Amino acid sequence: MKINYVELAKLDDLQRKKLTERPNVGLRDLIPRVVPIIEDVKSRGDIALSDYTLKFDGALMSPSDFRIPRKTMETALDKISPDLRNAIEKSIDNITRFHDFQKEPEIREIEIMPGVMAGEKTIPLNSVGIYVPRGKGSFPSMMMMAAVPAKVAGVKRIVAVSPPDKFGKADEATMAAALMIGVHEFYAVGGVQAIAALACGTQTIRAVDKIVGPGSGYVLAAKQWLAAEIDTGLPAGPSEAIILTDGSVDAITAATDLLIEAEHGPDSSAYLVTPDSDLAKEALKIIP
Q1: Cα(210)–Cα(39) distance, rounded to whole angstroms?
Q2: How would residue 259 be classed by pLDDT, with cut points 50, 70 and 90?
Q3: I want to staple 194 with a disulfide (CB 3.0 to 4.6 A). Which of 155, 161, 211, 270 is the partner?
Q4: How confident is the model at residue 142 (pLDDT cuts 50, 70, 90)?
Q5: Rounded distance, CA 227 to CA 21, Å?
Q6: Pairing mode, if any, of strands 157-161 and 185-187?
């Protein structure tokens, strides 16, 4: 792991500019690689999903293994620590409260002139697919941030997908979060093949109306390619964060906030900017 310590006052304009450059996902190179996978899933359905799951995740899975049984999610909920369960419960409550506040009224009308009414009607989608990444760790937070708004909106069918480990198992904390939110249709499938399944449908996974959630550059490329066929939302690219602080904050808080973004992958950018060199050096010790 490489963590840089930089003194801004000693940098010239070019060096400062380099610090602020966004990571290049390279969609031009990735799209030609993902299109054959998407077309193969369209053509061969579940068999293609099995083949790519073995190739990319190292898991030998038949189509009947894709969907995670409710009993497995209940077991995952029982196995996570009480502290983690409490944290998930609190997060779900906080996210729910915000999106309840954000939710539009079902109907808004205005009489724009005598006898002439204009208005809006807000109705939930019938279905949404949620992609929860896994490559660099466990992300129950992503399950919550994507599934809770769908639940609040009243989406009838919420479908989650997330890559399996080499044994064909989904992440325990993510399964627990799904169960606590009320997401019961959860598939241990990831990568480009999962995006293709959500967009186009297979024998096991029915297509959805919209796909949300971040992923690798390959997942982003797949969503961009399929955007003409299905609503894939805003592109979720590499994570970026900058923390500005004086010396009054404790270093572990600063380090933790940096890691929240940096854990997403090597193309993430996380900066702590402070005039307090002691704080910066203490954070450097804590991060590893």
Answers
A1: 19
A2: confident
A3: 161
A4: very high
A5: 26
A6: parallel
Is 176 a member of any domain?
yes
CA gap 41, 48 in Å, rounded: 5
What predicted TM-score, i.e. pTM, was given to this entire model? Answer: 0.85
Where in the sequence is the domain holding 253, given as residue range(s)? 238-286
Two structure tokens written together for 81: 């620590």
Are 130 and 205 in contact, with CB atoms under 8 Å apart? no
Contact in structure between 218 and 192 (CB atoms under 8 Å): yes
- Number of structural domains, the chain? 2
CATH number at 205 reads 3.40.50.1980
Which ranges of the chain does DSSP label H, i.e. alpha helix?
A: 13-19, 27-44, 46-57, 70-79, 82-102, 140-153, 172-181, 191-200, 217-226, 251-262, 277-286
Are residues 84 and 167 part of one domain? yes
Claim to verify: residue 171 and residue 69 sit in the same structural domain: yes
